[in-house]
Design a protein that fits this description.
CATH topology of the domain at 361-502: Cytochrome Bc1 Complex, Chain D, domain 2
Oligomer: single chain
Number of helices: 18
Helix content: 25-40%
Structural class: alpha+beta
Shape: globular
Strand content: 5-15%
CATH architecture of the domain at 361-502: Orthogonal Bundle
C-alpha cells in the first residue's frame, strides 16, 4: 500500500474520530464537592461558615424529565381551538442523551433544557388563554410580535391534561425589543407581575406566607440586625414588585429592596466570574453546570453557619429530598448531568441578532477615541470589553490571600455596596461587566437603578433629589445613584460620541 493511501486512510480515521468526539467525551460531574468549594468565593464576613448540600443528598433528588413544551399565547393571538388541540397530543419526552451524537445535537438539546419550565405548575382547564394585552399595560412585561409570552410554557405530561409552568432559563433571559425582535439569552424583560400582584392584593395568598417566602429568598445571617429582610406590609411588597423594571429580578440570594440586574448570557463563555458579585468562578462547562444547578434551587439548601434558607426545624436541618419547595414553586428535583451539559453548549452558542444601530463612521471613531482617552479601556478592555476582574466595594478590604486566588483590580468604583456585603450572593466584590451588547440591555448598575446610557453618564444622578428611571425602593421619592463617576465630566458632544460607540459593541 502506498504512503499516499495510508495517509488518506489515516486522515479519514481522524475525521471520523473528530466527528464522533461528542459521543465519547465524558460529561462533567455537576455535584463535585471539591470543585464546588473551589469555584465559590467566600462571604465577605470571615466568621460565616458555608456548607453545601452533600453529594448523597443531591443524587437522591428526583431528576427532571424534559417534555416537549408549547408556547403560551395572549388571547388576542391564540388560534381557535389551540388549547383543545394540545390536549389531544401524547406526552413526548424531548430530551434523550442517547440520541446526542454531534455538537449540533447537544446545542439543540440544550435549547430544550433552556426553555423547559421547572416551577409553578398548575392545570389549565379553560378553552382559551387567560392572558390579555390589557394585562401588559404601563410596560409590565413583554410579549413577542406574534403574541407569545416567553415567561411561561405549556406542558403535556399526561394525555388530555394541560399544565402551565414557569421559571425556565428563558423566563429571565429572553428580551423583546421595542422593534419586536426577540433576543434569546439576553437580559430579560418579559416577566409581567400583574397576576401575582392581584393575588397579593386580593388576599388569596396569606401575607405571613409571603413574608416567609421573601425571608427565604433574601435573609443573610450576617447582615446587621437593623437591615430588613422582609416587607413590613402588603403594600410595600406590591410596590416593590411594581417598581421592578425589565431586566431586574428579586431572585433568591438578593437583599430585600436591593434586587439584582439580570445578566446577559450571550458571550458568557469568555467571562471568568458569574453573578454581579463574582460569586462563582467560571472556567468551563462544569462550572456553568454547577451555576445552573445552584440557581435552580440548590443554593436554597446551602448552610450559612446554622441557617439553611429552606431548612426545617428553625432552618437548621435539610428538608427530606422529596419535600422541599422553593418560594417560586420549584419542587425538589434536579437536572441530570447530561441535561446541564447540553444547556452549557446551547448557552455558549448564543449569538445576538444583527445590531440595528446605525451611526456615522466619524461619530463612532470619535466615540472610540473618547473611550480610550477617558480610561474606560482600563476596566473594559477589548475585545471582551472587560478585564474579567473583581473590584472591592466600599466597606470591604480584600484579605491578602485573595490577591493570589482571584483576579482583583483593587480600585472601588464606589457604587452601592449592599448587594456585595449583606446578601447571600455577597463576596465583597462586584465583577467588571462586559460592555458587549449594551444596545440590548435596559438595566444598568447592579440593582438596575438606571435604564439608559444617557443616565449612566448624567452627573445629576449623584444628587439626592434625583429620580432614577430604574428601580428605587418604594418608600423613596428620590434617590441618588452614586458611584462609577467615569465619564460624568465629558462634554455633551463627547458623551454623544461615546454612547454611539458603546451601542455598536
Amino acid at each position: 500500500m502506498s504512503r499516499f493511501v495510508i495517509a488518506i486512510a489515516g486522515a479519514s480515521v481522524l475525521i471520523c474520530l473528530i466527528s464522533f468526539r461528542w459521543s465519547f467525551e465524558p460529561i462533567p460531574k455537576t455535584w463535585d464537592m471539591e470543585a464546588i468549594k473551589k469555584f465559590h468565593l467566600p462571604p465577605p464576613d470571615s466568621f460565616v461558615n458555608v456548607e453545601y448540600a452533600p453529594e448523597a443528598y443531591y443524587n437522591s433528588l428526583q431528576e427532571h424529565v424534559i417534555y416537549k413544551t408549547y408556547p403560551v399565547y395572549l388571547k388576542e393571538f391564540e388560534r381557535p381551538g389551540y388549547l383543545d388541540s394540545l390536549r389531544t397530543l401524547e406526552p413526548e419526552i424531548a430530551f434523550d442523551p442517547q440520541k446526542l451524537k454531534t455538537q449540533e445535537d447537544w446545542v439543540k438539546a440544550g435549547e430544550l433544557v433552556f426553555h423547559f419550565p421547572v416551577a409553578s405548575y398548575r392545570p389549565i382547564n379553560g378553552k382559551v388563554s387567560h392572558l390579555e394585552e390589557s394585562q401588559f399595560e404601563k410596560g409590565a412585561g413583554k410579549f413577542t410580535a406574534d403574541g407569545i409570552y416567553p415567561f411561561n410554557r405549556y406542558i403535556i405530561n399526561e394525555k388530555g391534561k394541560l399544565i402551565i409552568g414557569s421559571h425556565s432559563c428563558a423566563s429571565c433571559h429572553t428580551r423583546v425589543m421595542d422593534s419586536g425582535v426577540t433576543i434569546t439569552g439576553a437580559q430579560g424583560n418579559v416577566y409581567n407581575p400583574t397576576g401575582f400582584v392581584k393575588n397579593i392584593q386580593s388576599g388569596s395568598i396569606p401575607f405571613a406566607f409571603l413574608q416567609q417566602g421573601v425571608k427565604q429568598l433574601a435573609y443573610a445571617p450576617w447582615a446587621p440586625e437593623t437591615f430588613r429582610s422582609i416587607p413590613s406590609d402588603k403594600e410595600e411588597l406590591v410596590s416593590s414588585l411594581l417598581e421592578l423594571p425589565g431586566g431586574v429580578a428579586d431572585r433568591q440570594g438578593y437583599a430585600f429592596l436591593y434586587p439584582l440586574a439580570v445578566p446577559s448570557l450571550i458571550g458568557l463563555k469568555d467571562i471568568k466570574y458569574l453573578d454581579n458579585t463574582g460569586l462563582m468562578r467560571h472556567d468551563g462547562p462544569a462550572d456553568l453546570m454547577r451555576y445552573a444547578a445552584f440557581n435552580q434551587g440548590m443554593d436554597m439548601l446551602t448552610r450559612y453557619n446554622n441557617y439553611i434558607p429552606l431548612g426545617k426545624k428553625d432552618n437548621a436541618e435539610l428538608p427530606p429530598p422529596a419535600e422541599w419547595n422553593h418560594p417560586f414553586g420549584y419542587v425538589g428535583k434536579r437536572y441530570t448531568d447530561a441535561q446541564l451539559y447540553a444547556l452549557t453548549q446551547y448557552i455558549y452558542a448564543l449569538k445576538p441578532p444583527e445590531n440595528p444601530n446605525q451611526f456615522p463612521k466619524e461619530l463612532i471613531a470619535k466615540g472610540k477615541l473618547v473611550f480610550n482617552k477617558a480610561g474606560c479601556i482600563t476596566c473594559h478592555t477589548p475585545p471582551l470589553y472587560t478585564n474579567n476582574k473583581l473590584t472591592p466595594v466600599n466597606g470591604f478590604e480584600p484579605p491578602a490571600d485573595h490577591f493570589k486566588k482571584y483576579d482583583i483590580f483593587n480600585v472601588s468604583v464606589e457604587t452601592d455596596s449592599v448587594s456585595a456585603l449583606y446578601s447571600r450572593r455577597a463576596t465583597g466584590y462586584y465583577k467588571v461587566p462586559s460592555l458587549r451588547g449594551l444596545w440590548y440591555r435596559g438595566a444598568f448598575f447592579h440593582n438596575g437603578n438606571l435604564t439608559t446610557l444617557d443616565e449612566v453618564l448624567d452627573p445629576k444622578r449623584l444628587q439626592p433629589d434625583y429620580i432614577p428611571s430604574g428601580f428605587k425602593p418604594p418608600h423613596l421619592k428620590t434617590m441618588a445613584v452614586k458611584g462609577h463617576p467615569f465619564g460624568l465630566d465629558l462634554s455633551e458632544k463627547d458623551k454623544k460620541a461615546l454612547i454611539a460607540f458603546l451601542k455598536t459593541l
